[in-house]
């Protein structure tokens, strides 16, 4: 990967042709894994993340919580997901991301209904092109809903960046690596709650606050897509089906 | 009576539902009631509002009659998978209807083995203990004939149908006996294995196409044709 | 894999209620207000064999930072930059909550947040650490040891890191006849070239209150916490929401305002400690 000369060209477009406020093309699919209680595959541009949810299942003794379900989150990148093959052994980064992703779920998943159980959320990054933890959040939201695990609201993630002095929404890998900031945010816009935010890079206080506004706006759009995906999967309509033997 | 159905997603405000501790598909947030799961909100003309979750988890309730699969046993209990987050417990004493273990046969686990199904009632379940089962009631006990098929618990209502229309169709067209347990396990007893196979396929189809219309008719046609094809 | 913590210490309900009652009146325990950190003590050059070191006490929270500077190679994609490695250890000495063993997710998070905060705004002048482009460079190892844990490891660690970096001294090199480059005597008088100063401000959200520098009890009863890292110009050079709860946008804006103000206090204390160190030299 090479650092581009300009991140924003003369017509105001980014390296992939997007405007600063534009999301990458987003695809969402649910219920694709037969064994999982719930599953989802989400793509933002070239970043592809699949999430499988299992449970609630009875916890192993030492992690069992008497009054709520415990959450177990594993964020992992497949060896072929990055430009250079990534060793499958969990890295410090994957450990940190597993933690912040789990923490972002703790206030949204209604764990108090299932004491002494564990809800597993397994995240596998199949292809990485920036914003993997935010795509993971969106996929987790869909997978949890698919599993029928009660959540307070749908949620989603987006990473805001800064390139050539301009704040941009949903950064890709080039903008992440060579830009001046990478700010992943996960939120549940229906409840107005922010469940994760981080900043790598340098932003002024004003830019920091503006980035939040841009993120909430983008996440609202993303969550609306989630709603569409869910509703259209379960359409109550006149649909004839063939009986498979 | 016509009704207005729409699909609700988690976080969406729903009116007319009072969240109760047992149903976890709705909760209070500030001064609104919201859905916590995807479901079908059915607003009937008479004002009644029903919420049916589309995907869901079977949470045991005292009094439920369930069919469980024996997965292991301890010193004086069997542990059963009842298609729920929690394993259920059936004691040796209860199975044999005795007060003390000494009154039960010496090797009690020979009488109910791992891999066998049991129809039982939930006598106790709370946040501290796993569901406790009893077989000391009419019609309960080890399942010895027929077959058991397990479907998603939220599809049980569809297998029964409005006013029992679907289950009656199944009974009439196959001539089999059916017991549909609330935990998604269905016990089928037919005259022969072919009919059981047809019944199982029919139920799997109902599960997959639960949200389509005209399903009862299609299931009826399917079963009639299959019976002709197989000559049963 | 990250799992919901299951060995969380219990803060008696009555204690939590007392905290909230105090907050309602505008007070905290230990006679602080919402915006002031605890008493801070910074002592640099406490380890003779390290290139740099600092012992920081933030209230009772005690962090020891040790810096070792060694010869190594630059990373292939940055041939003109030296190398930085930050590791934190939540030693079992510090608390009954810390188990001996490999770094857990908390120590990894701590070290990575500090690492990013040093790297992104280029606190250390990485180019000055190059000896032979693409071939030989200085590697700065920053190791943070928690010795006593009474809440807020981040701010104490950040102060320890900055004060140790500022007072660290580079090794001297000599070139042997064979052309090999070796470290001559361990400590020279040359400092590490530092471009700017940064401090972190940790705030906890407890109910509707945002408080700076939570002690251990406050950390445990808090809904969630934020770590915001500032440079002297007031820019935010690092941020991490840590903990299980969530924020409304209004709470985030409050957090930013409050943290920004508190950063001034930390900068002043850092300045004083570094001035004192200069006098002692």
Short summary:
The complex is a heterotrimer of chains A (245), B (232) and C (281). With 232 residues, chain B is of the alpha+beta class. Chain B has helices spanning 92-96, 156-160, 165-174, 193-208, 215-230, and strands spanning 3-8, 26-29, 32-35, 39-44, 49-53, 65-73, 77-81, 88-91, 117-124, 132-134, 141-142, 147-150, 177-180, 185-189.
Gross morphology of chain C is: elongated
Q: Low-confidence spans of chain B: pLDDT under 50, at least 5 residues? A: none
Largest inter-chain interface?
A-C, 45 and 38 residues
Radius of gyration of chain C: 20 Å
> Which overall shape of chain B is indicated by the principal axes computed on the Cα atoms?
flat
Overall structural domain count of chain B: 3
Verbal overview:
Chain A is an alpha+beta fold and 245 residues long. Chain A is built from 4 helices and 9 strands, in the order ββββαβαββαββα. In chain A, the strands form 2 sheets. Chain A has a 5-stranded mixed beta sheet. A 4-stranded antiparallel beta sheet of chain A has the order 7-6-8-9, with helices on both faces. In chain A, α2 packs parallel to α4. In chain A, 57% of the residues are buried. Chain B is flat, with a radius of gyration of 20 Å. Chain C is α+β, with helices and mostly antiparallel strands and 281 residues long. In chain C, the strands form 3 sheets. In chain C, strands 2, 3, 4, 5, 6 and 7 form a 6-stranded mixed beta sheet that branches. Chain C has a 4-stranded antiparallel beta sheet with strand order 11-10-12-13, with helices on both faces. Chain C has a two-stranded antiparallel ribbon with strand order 8-9. Chain C is elongated and about 70 Å long. The model of chain C has no long low-confidence stretch (mean pLDDT 91). Chains in contact: A-B, A-C. Chain A binds chain C through residues 62-65, 70-74, 92-93, 95-96, 98-104, 106-108, 111, 118, 183, 188, 192-205, 208-209, 212, 216, and chain C through 1-4, 6, 103, 105-106, 108-109, 111-112, 116, 120-121, 224, 226, 231, 234-249, 252-253, 256, 260. β4 of chain A pairs antiparallel with β1 (2-3) of chain C.
């Amino acid at each position: 990967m090479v650092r581009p000369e300009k991140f924003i060209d003369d017509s105001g477009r980014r390296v992939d042709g997007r405007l600063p406020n534009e999301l990458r093309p987003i695809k969402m699919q649910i219920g694709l894994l037969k064994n999982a209680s719930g599953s989802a595959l989400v793509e933002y541009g070239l970043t592809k993340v699949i999430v499988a949810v299992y449970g609630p299942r009875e916890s192993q003794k030492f992690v069992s919580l008497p009054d709520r379900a415990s959450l177990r989150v594993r964020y992992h990148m497949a060896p072929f997901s990055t430009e250079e093959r990534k060793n499958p052994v969990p890295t410090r980064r994957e450990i940190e991301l597993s933690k912040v992703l789990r923490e972002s779920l703790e206030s949204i998943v209604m764990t108090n209904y299932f004491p002494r159980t564990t809800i597993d959320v397994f995240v596998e990054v199949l292809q990485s092109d920036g914003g993997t933890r935010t795509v993971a959040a969106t996929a987790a939201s869909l997978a949890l809903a698919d599993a029928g695990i009660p959540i307070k609201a749908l949620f989603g993630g987006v990473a805001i960046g800064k390139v050539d002095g301009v704040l941009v929404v949903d950064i890709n890998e080039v903008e992440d690596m060579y830009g001046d900031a990478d700010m992943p945010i996960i939120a549940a816009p229906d409840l107005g709650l922010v469940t994760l935010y981080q900043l790598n890079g340098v932003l002024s206080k004003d830019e920091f606050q503006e980035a939040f506004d841009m993120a909430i706006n983008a996440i609202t759009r993303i969550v609306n897509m989630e709603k569409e995906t869910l509703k259209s999967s379960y359409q109550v309509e006149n649909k004839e089906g063939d009986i498979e033997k | 009576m016509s009704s207005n159905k729409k699909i609700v997603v988690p976080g969406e405000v729903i009116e007319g539902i009072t969240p109760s501790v047992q149903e976890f598909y709705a909760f209070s947030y500030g001064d609104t009631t919201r859905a916590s799961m995807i479901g079908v909100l059915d607003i009937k003309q008479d004002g009644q509002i029903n919420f049916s979750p589309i995907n869901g988890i079977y949470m045991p309730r005292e009094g439920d009659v369930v069919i469980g699969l024996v997965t292991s046993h301890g010193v004086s209990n069997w542990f059963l998978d009842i298609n729920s987050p929690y394993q259920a417990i059936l004691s040796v004493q209860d199975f044999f209807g005795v007060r003390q273990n000494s009154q039960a046969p010496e090797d009690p686990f020979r009488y109910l083995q791992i891999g066998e199904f049991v129809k039982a009632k939930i006598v106790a379940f709370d946040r501290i203990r796993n569901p406790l089962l009893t077989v000391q009631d009419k019609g309960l006990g080890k399942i010895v004939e027929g077959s058991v098929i397990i479907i998603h618990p939220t599809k049980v209502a569809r297998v029964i149908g409005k006013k029992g229309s679907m289950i009656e169709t199944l009974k009439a067209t196959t001539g089999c006996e059916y017991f549909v347990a609330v935990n998604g396990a269905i016990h089928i007893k037919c005259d022969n294995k072919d009919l059981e196979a047809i019944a199982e396929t029919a139920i799997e189809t109902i599960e997959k196409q639960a949200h389509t219309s005209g399903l009862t008719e299609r299931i009826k046609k399917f079963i009639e044709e299959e019976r002709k094809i197989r000559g049963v | 894999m990250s799992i919901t913590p299951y060995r969380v210490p219990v803060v008696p309900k009555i204690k939590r209620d007392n905290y909230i009652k105090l907050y309602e009146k505008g007070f905290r325990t230990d006679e602080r207000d919402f915006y002031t950190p605890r008493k801070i003590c910074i002592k640099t050059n406490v380890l003779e064999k390290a290139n740099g070191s600092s012992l920081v006490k933030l209230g009772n929270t005690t962090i020891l930072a040790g810096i070792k500077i060694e010869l190594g190679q630059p990373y292939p994609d940055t041939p003109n930059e030296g190398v930085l490695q930050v590791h934190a250890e939540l030693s079992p000495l510090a608390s009954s909550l810390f188990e001996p063993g490999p770094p857990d997710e908390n120590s990894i998070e701590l070290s990575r947040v500090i690492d990013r905060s040093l790297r992104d705004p280029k606190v250390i002048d990485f180019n000055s650490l190059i000896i032979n482009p693409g071939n030989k460079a200085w590697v700065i190892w920053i190791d943070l040891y928690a010795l006593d844990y009474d809440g807020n490891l981040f701010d104490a660690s950040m102060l320890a890191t900055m004060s140790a970096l500022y007072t660290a001294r580079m090794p001297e090199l000599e070139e042997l006849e064979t052309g090999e480059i070796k470290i001559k005597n361990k400590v020279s008088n040359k400092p590490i070239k530092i471009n700017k100063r940064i401090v972190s401000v940790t705030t906890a959200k407890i109910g509707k209150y945002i408080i700076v520098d939570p002690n251990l009890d406050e950390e445990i009863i808090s809904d969630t916490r934020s770590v915001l890292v500032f440079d002297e110009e007031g820019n935010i050079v690092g941020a991490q929401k840590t903990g299980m709860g969530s924020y409304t946008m209004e709470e985030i804006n409050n957090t930013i305002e409050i943290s920004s103000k508190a950063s001034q206090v930390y900068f002043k204390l850092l300045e004083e400690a570094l001035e004192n160190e200069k006098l002692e030299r």
